[in-house]
């Protein structure tokens, strides 16, 4: 006689899927790159804090010095000239700050993760070396120029509003100041200058610094600067010429006749060829911009080819490098 067993079955039947369950979509191919860039911003707060600090200091200086001097004079024309004289200085300060931040970030980007041995952790993640290197290259080539544009335009608006308040308080019509302040043209010229010079034209410099950062074991700045200085010194000693030094100056300053469309002043003026205090000159500069001349410059494409080669070498080095 058999009795029913009280033992549990060895296995349970598979449960049917919930009727409302939705399959998880695959990750986007750009998602690792996006989070890699976010990681750089989290770990290197100076990328945005340094330009913000310089902008704040410049604004305080504008309020204390410029507005103070403007209110201390009774000459209305002189007061307006004081208010308009410092607009050009702001864009130069912010651009200079982001340029310096880009240099030091590039020199430390790949070296720091080998120095603190965090490269072992980051290599364990499903993020390719190519994605890592491109995310680090995007900081000086994309993120910092974007910060420059946003901060500079915001500062110009704030300074223009403060200047308008001073003029209105002095009994003057602020409409004249606004009519002579083509902010749209200045913003477009600033964006064009950053894209052509600070991104496309300076790309080989940032790629070279990333390569040295991935290779050098110590003294990264010296390893990045000494080979360049040695070439110039040897050329001067052997041939008594300065072609290499002139070439470096040309790469750093930018191809103004091609970037701006017509040779005028040095590119050291930056985007402020269109100063708020010189609205007519800004309009003229915008009218002479000729992207076709810039895009047909052989130096542009040679520089981009060198950039790609240097970044490819950086990816190879990062793949084979170990902690220091």
What would you note in describing this structure?
With 324 residues, the chain is an all-alpha fold. It has one domain (45-320). Helix content is 72%, strand content 0%. It has 16 helices and no strands. The chain has helices at 31-43, 46-72, 76-84, 87-108, 111-115, 119-123, 129-169, 175-179, 183-201, 203-215, 220-239, 243-253, 256-259, 279-288, 291-295, 298-320. The chain is globular. The protein starts with 30 loop residues before the first helix and ends with a helix.
Beta strand %:
under 5%
Name the overall outline. globular
Distance linking N and C termini: 77 Å
Mean pLDDT: 78
Return residue spans where pLDDT drops below 50 for at least 5 consecutive residues: 257-284
Number of separate strands: 0
Give the helix/strand class. mainly alpha
Q: Quick summary of this structure?
A:
The protein is mainly α.
Reconstruct the topology from this structure.
Elements: H1 31-43, H2 46-72, H3 76-84, H4 87-108, H5 111-115, H6 119-123, H7 129-169, H8 175-179, H9 183-201, H10 203-215, H11 220-239, H12 243-253, H13 256-259, H14 279-288, H15 291-295, H16 298-320
Key traits:
globular; 324 residues; mainly alpha
